[in-house]
Structure formats: C-alpha cells, structure tokens
Amino acid sequence: MAGSKVTPTPLLKDELDIVIPTIRNLDFLEMWRPFFEQYHLIIVQDGDPSKVIKVPEGFDYELYNRNDINRILGPKASCISFKDSACRCFGYMVSKKKYVYTIDDDCFVAKDPSGKEINALQQHIKNLLSPSTPFFYNTLYDPYREGADFVRGYPFSLREGVPTAVSHGLWLNIPDYDAPTQLVKPRERNTRYVDAVLTIPKGTLFPMCGMNLAFDRELIGPAMYFGLMGDGQPIGRYDDMWAGWCTKVICDHLGLGVKTGLPYIWHSKASNPFVNLKKEYKGIFWQEELIPFFQSATLPKECTTVQKCYVELSKQVREKLGKVDDYFNKLADAMVTWIEAWDELNPSGGKSAAELVNGPKK
Questions:
Q1: Count of CB atoms situated within 10 Å of the CB of 313
Q2: Element (H or E) spanning 194, and its range?
Q3: 80 Cβ partners below 8 Å, 6+ apart?
Q4: Cα gap 276→176, rounded to integer Å
Q5: Strand, coil or helix: what is 190?
C-alpha cells in the first residue's frame, strides 16, 4: 500500500545545497537557523561586487559575486544575468550536490494552521524522495502520503510512479502576482493554507516561482537556467517562468515528475508594482506567444539527456521565437553557452535519465 508505512524523512545534509541570491545582509537566516544550519549554503551576490554581505555566524557557506562569476566562467559568464535574481542559477551550476533548494531573502518561516513552524526544507525533501504521478491524476492528491493511497480506478501499472525532479513550494502573505494584478489588488494577502501536494500532469505547463523551490540537480539541473534578465536586457521577472517552462517540457519528454503545493514559506514584502511593470511589460505580451510555443514543443527521441534536450529546445527557440523579437536569438545563444559552461564545471554530466534513475547499463 502506497501510504501505509511512515518512515522519517532523511535530512540529506551532505547531499543538498541551499542557494540564495542576494544584494543585502542575510539577517533573515537567523529565523531559518534551526532548519538550515546543518546544510551548506551557496550565496550568489548580485549587484556591486565590492559591497560586503554579512552572513550570521555559524553557517557553512561559500559566496560568489560578479567578479567570481567572471573569473570562473570567463567569456561564458555572459549567460549569467546581472542585477536580477536570475543570477541564482550560477549557484546551481557550481553546486556539487544531488539536490538544490533555493529561497529568496525576503522569505521567512511560515506557520501551519495549528501555529507550528513549517520546516519547508523537510517537506521539499519528502516531495523529491517520493514518486510523482504525471500520467494519471489521483483525485486524493499525493497517493504516497501518510493516510492516502491510489483511489479506485487508478491503473495498477502506473502506481509505481516516476522519479520526482522538481518540488515547487508556495507562499503565505504576499502572493506572487504580476504587476497588473498587484496594482488592482494592492492589499490582497494569501491566508489560505491548502494541505496538499499535487503532481502537475504531463502536457500541462505551470508558472514556476523561484523563491521556494527544490529540485534534483542530477535529474534536471542543466534545464534550470534562469535566462537573460535584468541589466542590459529588455525583460525581467520572467527568469523562473522561463526555467519552469523549459524544465516542464523536458521532464515530460524524459518521464520525470514535477510537484506543487506544500511547503509554504512566509513571503514578507511586496515588490514595487510600478518597477515590476517596467520589467514585465514586454513579457506580458510575449508570453501569449511563448506559451503556445512551449505547449506544442516536442523533442526527438534521440534527446536522452537533459543537455541534449536543452540544446534542441534552444534551436526551436531561435527558429520559432526569433521572429517575435531579436532578444530570443540572444537567449537561444545564451542557452547553449549555459550548457557548455555547465558541462565544463560538471564533466561527469550528460547521463540519460534512465541511467541516473537505474544506474549504468550492465
């Protein structure tokens, strides 16, 4: 029975890195100390590299600023965004761990309806270590959870599920709205705690928010490129969206799962809707062409690794979206540069999804 045995969630403290993009002192880590102190942090400092970022005592961390990114990647550093939280994906690239959790520095510990503090990281680990069910929807949500199972009518041949590549968490308090919605609903707060985790079905896209996100770096890492945003680019605030659309198309192709729902964090402050509108303006129009592009994107069966899938997707971006705006030709180039840089820093990569899940062929 899927939900009959309860085992404690492993901490994975030697197998997981926490990646934090920031431009400020990381006082917010004090609140997370009980949950994060055992883990290694990768801090990606955006903006002025001469500014000193203070990290509370007792945390094990490495910090990279723009000078470090330029030194490590050389000319390939052009694929990493500047003056935008999209720079976080550099942390994914330099991590040497199997799993990554990324969180924004304005995200605090949330409480569940009983008032208990939520260990977001533990729930993400639970999500990643249990299978996903993208091929057939279970109406009782996550069938592997304690007290749940597959409902009547669920095919037995699909009950093993597939490996989970992505765990997408949510937020209480300030919702992750676009600028027009922020302007219309400036006082709206999310107070609804929904105690559920769902697998996003195959063939369905979703808006992936990068502020409370975990993934299996070995299974899907090279697809988690947050694009070209911020300084010198015509668009911002679509970094995590881009990564989510690319990742979902590749997960669907490789037979991997994406979950959304628990855990919640407390999103403490709303960003300026007028600044956001300036960043999002072009994206709001472009997404009407981007979504149909991703919905119809197919990858050939020769694409057996995330890297091959991603490079193939970059070709399709150039071919189909290049005519929307020249920005997408630049982005297609950057996607290839990202994969080249990833493979330089992670030379053992490029394994097929089957090899990663089942081990090398005997």
A1: 23
A2: none
A3: 69, 73, 86, 87, 89, 90
A4: 12
A5: strand
Reported as a pLDDT band with limits 50, 70 and 90, residue 359 is low
pLDDT value for 8: 75
Dmax (CA) of the chain: 61
Asked if pLDDT for residue 100 goes beyond 60, the answer is yes
Question: Virtual CA dihedral for 62, 219, 299, 316, nearest 10 degrees?
Answer: 0
Whole-number Cα distances in Å, 116 to 110, 111, 119, 210 = 8, 5, 9, 24
End-to-end CA, the chain: 31
Give per-residue pLDDT as tens, 277-318: 999 999 999 999 999 999 999 999 999 999 999 999 999 999
Cβ-count burial 214-232 (b if 16+ within 10 Å, e if not) = bbbbbbbbbbbbbbbbbee
Measured CA to CA, the distance from residue 77 to residue 72 in angstroms comes to 8
pTM: 0.95
As a three-state string, the secondary structure of 4-70 is CCCCCCCCCCCCEEEEEEECCCCCCHHHHHHHHCCCEEEEEECCCCCCCCCCCCCCEEEEECHHHHH
Residue identified by tokens 């899940």 is 357
3-class secondary-structure state, position 81: coil
